[in-house]
Design brief:
CATH topology: Rossmann fold
Strand order of the largest sheet: 3-2-1-4-5-9-8
Radius of gyration: 18 Å
Largest sheet: 7 strands, mixed
Number of strands: 9
Strand content: 15-25%
Distance between the termini: 24 Å
Structural class: alpha/beta
Length: 233
């Protein structure tokens, strides 16, 4: 996903430009810190105090120059209008958040509001068009049959959450003046691998295969996750 994001940044902004980045649902700060190391100014928003503490801990291990580029805000991602002025950011990330939000449209509209004209909105969502793939490949045909007609699922943490369909998010992005510019699949071949699975001996080859599949039909359409990039008009 980082490679996909870097591809979109390179295609939209001049080389060397320092971007104003908002990361809603910063989690442990993986993407935020990576972008700060590249020279960008990053603001991270996170509601979960445990994740805020983890992000602060990770940030504390960075050199001072990188720490100065990152600001952490504890708050709800749906309240971006409270914290930020319209057009405040060149790049807005919202990765792995929408599945926890019952009504995602207001959240996405708020993200577009704080995006500057020509700015990039990056969403990572659970693929509602391919929910049957995981139970089907895991040997659970009953679960696969149930998944065909639903966007609800239980994630690996045991939480009841929701998925998004590409067509519906495409319509949402068009309606908030940040139409879909590009989309990718994420975790095409590796969705069944557990978080504690050992890294393969040939990780670069696996990443190359995932990257190729994530931009190639029909493979990207059955990925566990979708990475959608909209551009503010």
């Amino acid at each position: 996903m980082a490679r996909q994001l870097d591809e979109q940044i390179a295609g939209r902004f001049p080389v060397g430009r320092r971007l104003r980045v908002l990361d809603v649902g910063i989690g442990q700060g993986t993407q935020a810190l990576r972008l700060a190391r590249l020279g960008h100014q990053v603001t991270g928003v996170e509601q979960d105090p445990v994740m805020v503490a983890a992000a602060r801990e990770a940030l504390a291990r960075e050199p001072e120059g990188i720490r100065e580029r990152v600001r952490l805000v504890q708050g709800d991602g749906r309240d971006t209008g409270v914290h930020f002025l319209p057009g405040s950011f060149d790049l807005v990330l919202c990765h792995g958040v929408l599945m926890y939000v019952t009504e995602p449209d207001p959240l996405v509209a708020g993200l577009a509001r704080v995006l500057a004209p020509g700015g990039l909105l990056s969403l990572l969502v659970r693929n509602g068009d391919a929910l049957a793939m995981r139970p089907g490949l895991a040997g659970d045909p009953a679960g696969a049959l149930a998944a065909f007609d639903s966007t609800a699922y239980t994630n690996r943490l045991g939480l009841n959450v929701r998925a998004d369909r590409l067509s519906e998010l495409t319509a949402t992005l068009a309606g908030i003046a940040a139409p879909l510019h590009a989309w990718y699949g994420v975790r095409v071949f590796t969705d069944l691998a557990g978080d504690d699975a050992p890294l393969p001996d040939d990780l670069p080859t696996l990443l190359a295969a995932e990257e190729r599949a994530g931009r190639t039909d029909p493979y990207r359409g059955v990925a566990a996750l979708l990475h959608l990039c909209g551009v503010r008009g």
